[in-house]
């Protein structure tokens, strides 16, 4: 195993130091390190973050390998600075059995670019009717701890209560896609001024907020952990703030696109901007940014959702919702938060690793820590070209935007998955 | 002249007035024995209809034929569309056939905007989902101007299912551009959110039809589908008709000069009674005739203005 000596790099924004990576761990830190057998990387001007952890990734395999595979999505993740991603369950077949989650887990290991941690479905076939075999998935080789019907809300309150209770047996967490389905029938975009003008059926903020309010009360009642996916409204932030003040064990994520883009993007009717939950208003964006800084929202998660060209190059109403995120998330975070490295490390690595229970991830570079880390050049700026992305799909909403920051290298247990901005395999 | 007509918002006052003035000239053709002008000879107009709408399609077809254009009717029913051809592939086909203009009716809001990205010719929105229907707004404005002599300063009530109405959206945009005042009337469930900010500042909303009628010059009744009651927009068709339908007694609350409009097709007994629909105040049949003139003007100006 090759050793790497990274010279003069800033660990999470601190004064520059050298890092020696050997045998999968950070072996030494300090000024003036030497290691004759090591490959030397110049870290001048670079920031070393703990490898990013994405709690919300759609890898599409099995089922839609034309849009993404575990391997292509893993490569996109590594290029985005990630060392672990949690793969959502809405594949075909659905990841609702030990067999499917083990398949995804094994494909991740074979790709070897990031740790792929499967998420299991809460209900059989994501149908919202009957609990999937959560325990079997937890006990499988994939060791599933997060369960989600993402794409669908676990709308039945009794079923949601039971799921929250049941997973306590193995310290699981339910990640809820908060969307009251009766309030969003046919919904195409945020309900507001723009939806009225465009004649597209509205997705009202209250459909998200009502479910979050119900679920935090359920989680409190049964003493369980709840994670809220892709929070998108100012009202949801207020519900979460209230719940956290009461001591409810709730965590929440926000996507990069909800931190940057608004519903005005729908004016073009280009479905690359169609996503669920939808892009909201500037007021919501401001509230989400403040909540992320404050900690009411715990993490940034990408909701990376690759889609084939034909599923986006069509009428808005017929397009599938979702957008790419893995290769641009850190740049969006830098753009939105500025170079607050400790905050970025917390929201994009440490906290998601804690929520997912991923030991070995989310730890700052220090002697003895597994060498899962990423090197960022904060001074670089890059223009996003869809054709250059590693994802199999092209549905990025940031095409031709110039964004700050570039991932120079990513290490997974001491092995480089990205060097000089290029994937090593 | 603009290249496409996708929205009422595409028209400034000068362009809209130019269309209405041109339509008035076109209307004289309809009175002639030979109802045909050579203006668009050799040009191809495709009517691309993804929804059944015989009245709108034949109106555009008559308009294009009176201008001597070659007309191709491309109906989604029974064509490759039902086999799942994408809008983009259809667009590329029309492009290859050399369509100078594509008149598109589509159930998805924004489909004409998408189409305009994929064809070189002019795209005319003939109604898209619950979004817009700009030539309907133009023919409505033409009808008001013909009957009442002006548009600026008129007070127009648009009554009914505004939420799902492409006619209402285009009318609000165009009428405000031309200086008329619009009040939207309907049950709160059928009035979309933030309508004033979304479409035109100064657009009023009222839930009380009886209170609005004495102060308007025009009342435009929108078609209301009975099935909306199944989605709880209102309790029953009868309650809707009682509160928001235009019947004889309500019509008599209007000022003497006021006119009654309806874009058709009507639900007689729902939003409008036969007594009102067939009264001298009603412009419903005129609207149909004016539709051809206005669509002639639109095609003439879009196609003639571009390449001559």
Automatic annotation (TrEMBL), chain A:
Cofactor: bound how, per the entry note?
Binds 2 Zn(2+) ions per subunit.
Q: In which pathway does it act?
A: Pyrimidine metabolism; UMP biosynthesis via de novo pathway; (S)-dihydroorotate from bicarbonate: step 3/3
InterPro entries, per this entry? DHOase, DHOase/Allantoinase_Hydrolase, DHOase_cat, Dihydroorotase_CS, Metal-dep_hydrolase_composite, Metal_Hydrolase
An example GO biological process term is: purine nucleobase catabolic process
Residues where substrate binds: 58-60, 90, 276, 307, 321-322
Question: Which family does the record claim for this protein?
Answer: Belongs to the metallo-dependent hydrolases superfamily. DHOase family. Class I DHOase subfamily.
User: What name appears for this protein in its UniProt entry?
Assistant: Dihydroorotase
Q: Organism, per UniProt?
A: Micromonospora sicca
Q: Which gene encodes it?
A: pyrC
Automatic annotation (TrEMBL), chain B:
Which reactions are catalysed by this chain? Answer: carbamoyl phosphate + L-aspartate = N-carbamoyl-L-aspartate + phosphate + H(+)
Against PROSITE patterns, the record matches this protein to: CARBAMOYLTRANSFERASE
What EC number(s) would the UniProt record show? Answer: 2.1.3.2
Q: Which residues bind L-aspartate?
A: 83, 166, 223
Instruction: Quote a single Gene Ontology cellular component term.
Output: cytosol
Domain Aspartate/ornithine carbamoyltransferase carbamoyl-P binding, first and last residues per copy = 3-145
Q: Which GO terms fall under molecular function for this chain's record?
A: amino acid binding; aspartate carbamoyltransferase activity
Q: Does the keyword Transferase apply?
A: yes
Q: Provide this UniProt record's keywords sorted from A to Z.
A: Pyrimidine biosynthesis, Transferase
Q: Which GO terms describe its biological process?
A: 'de novo' pyrimidine nucleobase biosynthetic process; 'de novo' UMP biosynthetic process; amino acid metabolic process
What positions does the entry give for carbamoyl phosphate binding?
Answer: 55-56, 105, 133, 136, 264-265
Q: Which InterPro entries match?
A: Asp/Orn_carbamoyltranf_P-bd, Asp/Orn_carbamoylTrfase, Asp/Orn_carbamoylTrfase_sf, Asp_carbamoyltransf, Asp_carbamoyltransf_Asp/Orn-bd
Q: Which residues form the Aspartate/ornithine carbamoyltransferase Asp/Orn-binding domain?
A: 153-302
Keyword hit for Transferase: yes
Q: What is its pathway? A: Pyrimidine metabolism; UMP biosynthesis via de novo pathway; (S)-dihydroorotate from bicarbonate: step 2/3
Q: Which family does it belong to?
A: Belongs to the aspartate/ornithine carbamoyltransferase superfamily. ATCase family.
Q: How does it assemble?
A: Heterododecamer (2C3:3R2) of six catalytic PyrB chains organized as two trimers (C3), and six regulatory PyrI chains organized as three dimers (R2).
Function text: Catalyzes the condensation of carbamoyl phosphate and aspartate to form carbamoyl aspartate and inorganic phosphate, the committed step in the de novo pyrimidine nucleotide biosynthesis pathway.
The protein in question is named Aspartate carbamoyltransferase
Which organism does this record belong to? Micromonospora sicca
């Amino acid at each position: 195993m090759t050793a790497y000596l990274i010279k003069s790099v800033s660990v999470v924004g601190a004064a520059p130091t050298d890092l020696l990576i050997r045998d999968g761990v950070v072996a030494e830190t300090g000024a003036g390190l030497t290691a004759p057998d090591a490959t030397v990387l110049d870290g001048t001007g670079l920031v070393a973050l703990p490898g990013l952890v994405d709690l919300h990734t759609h890898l599409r395999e099995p089922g839609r390998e034309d849009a993404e595979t575990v391997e292509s999505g893993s490569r996109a993740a590594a290029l985005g600075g990630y060392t672990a991603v949690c793969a959502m369950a809405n594949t075909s077949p659905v990841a609702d059995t030990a067999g499917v989650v083990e398949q995804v887990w094994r494909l991740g290991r074979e790709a070897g670019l990031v740790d792929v941690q499967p998420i299991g479905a809460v209900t059989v076939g994501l149908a919202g009717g009957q609990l999937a075999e959560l325990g079997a998935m937890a006990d499988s080789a994939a060791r599933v701890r997060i369960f989600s019907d993402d794409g669908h809300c676990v709308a039945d309150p009794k079923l949601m209560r039971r799921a929250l209770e049941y997973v306590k047996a193995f310290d699981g967490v339910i990640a809820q896609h908060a969307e009251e389905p009766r309030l969003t029938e046919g919904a195409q975009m945020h309900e507001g001024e723009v939806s009225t003008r465009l004649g597209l059926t509205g997705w009202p903020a209250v459909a998200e907020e009502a479910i979050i309010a119900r679920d935090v009360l359920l989680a409190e009642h049964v003493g369980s952990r709840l994670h809220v996916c892709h929070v998108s409204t100012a009202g949801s932030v207020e519900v979460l703030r209230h719940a956290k003040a009461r001591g409810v064990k709730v965590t929440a994520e926000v996507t990069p696109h909800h931190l940057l883009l608004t519903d005005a993007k729908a004016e073009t009717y280009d479905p690359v901007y169609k996503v669920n939950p939808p892009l909201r208003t500037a007021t919501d964006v401001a509230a989400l940014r403040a909540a992320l800084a404050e900690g009411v929202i715990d993490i940034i998660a990408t909701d990376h959702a690759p889609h084939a060209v034909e599923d986006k190059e069509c009428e808005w109403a017929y397009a599938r919702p979702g957008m790419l995120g893995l290769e641009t998330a850190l740049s969006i975070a830098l753009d939105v938060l500025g170079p607050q490295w400790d905050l970025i490390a917390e929201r994009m690595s440490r906290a998601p690793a804690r929520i997912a229970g991923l030991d070995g991830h989310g730890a700052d570079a220090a002697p003895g820590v597994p060498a899962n880390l990423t090197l960022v050049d904060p001074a670089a700026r890059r223009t996003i070209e869809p054709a250059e992305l590693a994802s199999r799909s092209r549905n990025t909403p940031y095409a031709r935007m110039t964004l700050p920051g570039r991932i120079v290298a990513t290490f997974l247990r001491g092995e480089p998955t990205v060097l000089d901005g290029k994937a090593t395999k | 002249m603009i290249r496409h007509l996708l929205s009422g918002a595409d028209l400034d006052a000068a362009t809209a007035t130019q269309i209405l003035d041109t339509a008035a000239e076109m209307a004289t053709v309809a009175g002639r024995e030979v109802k045909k002008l050579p203006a668009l000879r050799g040009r191809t107009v495709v009517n691309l209809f993804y929804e059944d709408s015989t009245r709108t399609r034949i109106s555009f077809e008559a308009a294009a034929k009176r201008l001597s254009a070659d007309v191709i009717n491309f109906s989604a029913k029974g064509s490759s569309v039902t086999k799942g051809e994408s809008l983009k592939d259809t667009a590329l086909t029309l492009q290859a056939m050399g369509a100078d203009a594509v008149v598109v009716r589509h159930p998805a809001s924004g489909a004409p905007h998408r189409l305009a990205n994929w064809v070189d010719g002019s795209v005319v929105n003939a109604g898209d989902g619950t979004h817009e229907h700009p030539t309907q707004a133009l023919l409505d404005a033409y009808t008001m101007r013909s009957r009442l002599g002006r548009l600026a300063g008129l007070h127009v009530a648009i009554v009914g299912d505004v939420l799902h109405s492409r006619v209402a959206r285009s009318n609000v945009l165009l009428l405000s551009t031309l200086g008329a005042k619009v009040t939207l009337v309907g049950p709160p469930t059928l009035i979309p959110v933030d309508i004033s900010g979304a479409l035109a500042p100064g657009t009023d909303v009222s839930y009380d039809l009886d209170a609005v009628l004495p102060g308007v010059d025009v009342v435009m009744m929108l078609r209301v589908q009975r099935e909306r009651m199944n989605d709880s927009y209102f309790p029953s068709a009868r309650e809707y008709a009682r509160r928001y339908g235009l019947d004889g007694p309500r019509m008599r609350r209007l000022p003497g000069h006021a006119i009654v409009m309806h874009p058709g097709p009507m639900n007689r007994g729902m939003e409008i009674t036969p007594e009102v629909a067939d009264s001298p105040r009603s412009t419903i049949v005129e609207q149909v005739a004016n539709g051809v003139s206005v669509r002639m003007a639109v095609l003439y100006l879009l196609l003639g203005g571009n390449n001559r």
